[in-house]
Amino acid sequence: MSTISNIIYYVIILIGFLISLLNLGFQFGSIIVVLSSLGIAFALGIQNILKQFISGLLITLNEMYNIGDYIITNGAEGTVTKFSLLTTTLTNDDDITITIPNDKITNSNITNITNKNNIRIRVYFTIKNIPNFDISKFIELIKNTTLLSKYITNKNIIVDIDSISHRLGTKIVVRANINSKNFNIAKNDIKFLLMKMLSNSKVLNSPVNIQKE
User: Where are the beta strands (DSSP E) in the chain?
Assistant: First the structure.
């Protein structure tokens, strides 16, 4: 309705503009040329709007996603915070708002993470290179800390180690399974637990990041 109101508004302005041109003495033929140019521009503009509108209808009728769902599409991912028949608005993990035309979404793959029962998350951070550091004991501490979260769906916690360089430290990657519907809450809960443990051990050398695999 907002889009239709805007179209009517600009049509009225255009009619008033053309009447003003006639009153100023412009030739009718010249106005026809102007109208033809404007008509082509309008047709191209309305074509894009119609594509977005039809795509919005397809998304709605096929129930591809709803407000609050976490989706991956068109090279972006995040929680659906707003939806209209023309655009979809996502908020990603960095709290950045992304607005995507609906025709861009229907022309790309759509993965609705929320519709899945379980997903695997990837937690990664870098620790300092400390001489004689017991990395095996540290891995067990990471596993036990991650399992403290009530959102973990199984005890199969995988921890990988990647030595980046002496300057950057050692990269730690933790993989765990959670219920997809609890992604945002689980992410914050696991991050809080690990940050608390890492701050106590004083080995953290980078922020703790969490993604979906």
Answer: 70-73, 76-83, 87-91, 97-101, 110-112, 118-127, 158-165, 169-179, 209-212
Would the pTM of this model clear 0.70, i.e. be above it?
no
Lowest mean pLDDT among 44-48, 169-173, 194-198: 44-48
CA distances from 105 to 55, 151, 205 (A): 8, 30, 38
Location of structure tokens 């996502």: 90
Output the CA–CA distances (angstroms, integers) from residue 96 to 78, 80, 89, 202, in the order listed: 9, 12, 10, 30
- At 14, which amino acid appears? L
**Closest listed residue to residue 77, CA positions, set 63, 61, 62, 88:** 88
Distances, alpha carbon 24 to alpha carbons 10, 27, 33, in Å: 21, 9, 17
Return the number of other C-beta atoms located less than 10 Å from residue 38's C-beta.
Answer: 13
Domains, the chain, ranges and CATH?
1-115 (2.30.30.60), 117-212 (3.30.70.100)
User: How high is the pLDDT of residue 154?
Assistant: 82
- By the 10 Å C-beta count (0-12 exposed, 13-18 middle, 19+ buried), 153 is classed as middle
